[in-house]
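Quick one:
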Amino acid sequence: MEELMDIESLKKLTPAQQEQVIAGVKQQAAIANAQNLITDLSEKCTQKCITSPGSSLSNSERQCLQRCMDRFMESWNLVSQTLQKRLQDEASAMPNFGQGGFS
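Output:
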């Protein structure tokens, strides 16, 4: 198991090592985000589309699930893109933001 680093330990790393830590954190956040997305998608669409569970899905249940998943993903992508743009706009408005480093 990886050891958690405090800010003082991070400050002692070289800029390249700091960037590596940041990349690892971003990757872990992306994985957690994808897992949450799949869980939410499964729960919401299953509740909406499958009213009487059985051994197989009816055609209407399949169509409902497909439409639900499509709409959910379209909405999630729109929100994600909007948030990413907002974060980029805010970052570009802040001097020295996003240039790495913890000092």
